[in-house]
Write a structure and sequence with these properties.
Elements: H1 15-24, E1 29-33, H2 39-43, E2 48-56, E3 70-71, H3 88-97, H4 107-116, H5 121-129, H6 132-139, E4 162-170, E5 173-177, E6 185-189, H7 197-209, E7 219-226, H8 228-242, H9 245-272, H10 277-289, H11 293-314
Antiparallel strand pairs: 1-7, 2-4, 2-7, 3-6, 4-5, 5-6
Helix pairs in contact: 1-9, 8-9
Length: 320
Amino acid sequence: MDDESNGWQLTESDPGVFTELLKTLGVKLVVDDLYSLDTETLSTLQPIHALIFLFKWVSNQDERGGGSGTYDDAFPGFFAHQVVNNACATLAVLNALLNIPALKTGPELQDLLSFTTGMDAQTRGLAITSSGFLREAHNALSPPSAISLDGLHVPKTSEEAYHFVVYLPVAGSVYELDGLKRSPVRHGAHSDGGEGWTSKAREIIEARIATYPPGSLAFNLMAIHDDSLPHLQAHLRAAQSAGDDFVTAELASMISQENDKRMRWAFENSLRRHNHVGLVHALTLALAKAGLLGSVTDQAKTKLKERIEKIRKDGKMEEH
């Protein structure tokens, strides 16, 4: 275990993982991947309350997140620093949720907000890190590895670092909340008309991505938004009452797709809760004894290359 992590494990950038975290925190919102920031894509998820941005951390970057950003040391909302490694995912979520007006949360989150009122960002970060409830919620789908290299004197290698931040509207401006920065970064006022704050956020995020080499896939973007199922189900009932078969069929299809997605999330999360090292070891040993390990490894490498090429072709951002 990393001494600097204090028991906080790495979190996978996956909408099912983040939606489950929101559920644990008593928040009835959902998280979805964003593969594009175009108007049509964003409109399907409105209202969007915050954008979670995962990026490859590079030293000597503009600390303000772009030329348009300025530190707001008098930020009027909630902001906490990240004080231990691996906690940036949950910290980003908390920095977002606790700035959404009139959001209903579970009692633990309400207690946290009350307890940290008046604290500075560093002390708030320490309070979050010390919360057993939050650490357990964070680690629920990120179990510690069963493989340890301690005592083997294996030289440590430097790994690429990835970091979560959030963008959201607060008091008429778009802010970037990054727990590793001294204060929230204000990126300017947003319009209340048209696409609203997401139009400004698009400019900010696209400008940030443009600072990386062309074709880089070292990003992932997700949206925290209202749960669409209750809305769809209400419209379905209205369409059925009105005898509109076309709209009924269309809404039923959309609901089915949403339910299928959530069933997939539930299945994937169930796999994350288990440690499969024993199974993998047994299968690898059996393949080696049968003389098939080499060919199976080659097939896996080929499929991995095909997946990478498909991701590049589709323009989808890589998850870490």
